[in-house]
Request: fold
Amino acid sequence: MPSMKFGFGQAMTRKEDDPLLRGLGRYIADVAPDKTLHAAVLRSPHAHAHFTLRDLDRVRAMPGVRLVLTAADITELGPLPTPGVLAGVDIKVPHYPILAVDLVRHVGDAIAFVVADSVERAKDGIEAIVIDWQPLPHVIGAMAALAPGAPPVWPNQPNLAFETGMGDAAATQQAFAKAAQTVSVTVVNQRLVTNYIDTRGVVAEYDGERYTLTLGSQGSHSIRDIIGGEVMKLSPDKMRVITPDVGGGFGTKLFPYREYALAAVAAERLRRPVKWIGERSEHFLGDSHGRDNISTAKLAIDDKGRFLALDLDIVADMGAYLSCYAPYIPWLGLGMATGAYDIPVAHARLRGVYTNTVPVDAYRGAGRPEASYLIERVVDAAARQLGMTPAAIRRKNLIKPKALPYTTPTGKIYDSGDFAGAMARAQEVAGWDGFAKRAAASKRAGKLRGIGMATYIEACASGYAETATLQLDSDGGVTVLIGTQSTGQGHATAYAQIVADRLGLPPEMVRLRQGDTDRVATGEGTGGSCSIPIGGVAIDRAGQALGEQLKELASEALEASAGDLEIADGAVRVSGTDKTISFADLANHPSAKPDQLRAAKHFGSDIPTYPNGTHIVEVEVDPDTGRTEILNYVVVDDFGATLNPLLLAGQVHGGAVQGIGQALMEDTVYDPASGQLMSASLMDYALPRASDAPDFHFETRNVPCINNPLGVKGAGEAGAIGSCPALMNAVIDALWRGYAIGHLDMPATPQKVWQAIDKARKTAAA
Reply:
């Protein structure tokens, strides 16, 4: 049927925004059943210490205190599991207790859970607990943890959690031996804290037979299966998990957390609803962190400037415990190590390391931003060493369209794309050829101007599967039930557009139901940019199936063969006539059976899609203050096909701003001496504001995806993948032009930039 004004490819505004903007959203903090009790968590002030709790009976007798849980009170609970281990890799997964037993391993480690009549009473109980501490040596930073004599995070085992590799070491070594030149860079991809709008929380209820957890998550089913199944050892029918509105997830809300099991136990024992809402400081101390890699890339190059081989050494800080998918995240990055470049051979070594810090797990992009940052930094370093421009060295080495499908040395098979074409278009829009004139004008004004690019590629939308169910309602509308979870992406709008193409319904007649394990039978949640490439395909196929069923149902009423019928405007019509029957009449037709009004389709894929594109950033650096100003930001992306240009632009803008935050200001700082998290609040951890976001130019140059039935490639993480390397390459370009400074690690804060300039000035003067 023809595309509708609100169908696939149309710039439809978000249907879910109106209630959210009017304050009618229902987030976890808004959930308040009758007679709800409130909880608080006692967290460790030490990075590593033995402890003994004393005088708990006095705390339990305090006014308003209803329950105090310590490790001794929850021995029936299993630990938090780590399903994201690596096949064939020896990883001794340490015990990750719901509450620390007698030893804490990072500042913020959970020790006790106090439930009271109010939050204030619960906090009073926390503060009244007496603890005898015996501090132990601790270690901060992955390289320090690997040093000889470093304090062990876990007894009787090294701080090296695991070691693995990918690629062909021998062939890589041979290629380096033949190289005309080699280039090496070591970069820090610093630790980040997610900082979504609404902090995590949970409301737990128990009715004598069954638990209900209401919480902010990126997928209710995984929380049920891990907290209910693995930690509490329940069958799936004994726990219901509901996710209301969610204000951002970025990977960090995918995971099970200790408070969910603790609240469930407390609700069972007290037979009252128990509510815990994390404060912002608890988010810094208790939720998984992101990134935190130290990586070295070595590039072998022939005498014509072509890449011969890539060798990587990556050290990933895991924190004190192995969080849910932690080992798998840097492994994902290894798979994309060669980027969009034609590099014949490669080898990567990966080491995961324990430190006395908050555990690290997936954060927007999950390994792919780290990989893109590393390859794009070493490519720019190669351009400087060879005296080539960043664009010229890329044009020479990017994979050509005629080479696709292309198998990388890490085993990825790129199906489609025109990498140099996207770069050329971005250069055109950014005015790349006129940069020298602009740089000269900045120099006359006492400023340093730089321009940088990143030609990124990522792998996403694989390893997931979803079942979508479409139900025709009595009013002629359709309810979509699916196990993905919107955390702000606009699923209600995007999915309605897919249904519109199949069933001709306006968006207000399509209702989305997510985030309830009772209403939706299965689901893998939202992560890895999978919602449209996986969930969207399932919805499209279910819509097609439902349409065929409705035509069969309508054939009797319209006295026509189903093959002569078509669907349009929420009705079934005899083709070429005005003879119709509405969906509402079909839903209420006496002969209609429930199975005819409902269709379910399953779709999953183990083959990734490969979004790609080019970010170009132009900056101006003030050498007297170190401040960096973004003057121009251009993004040209290949997402295969565009479902909704407005939603897509929002995703790219949001991801790019997160990258700007990492590149210029965000930094998670631990004090090595004390083990304290120094940046544990928004007073000390800088986040990008609206004024830090430039006026983006964003466009698509799509090449349809061969690996996906809808032709889409996934877009949720792309902005965060291309932004950091493009911006840092621009900053370093400015510093190189002014002071021959060829290296700087993120974040490029004014202080760090000024210090680099000051050092270069003093060196030149000497």
Observations:
- The first strand starts at residue 37 and ends at 43.
- The chain has a mean pLDDT of 97.
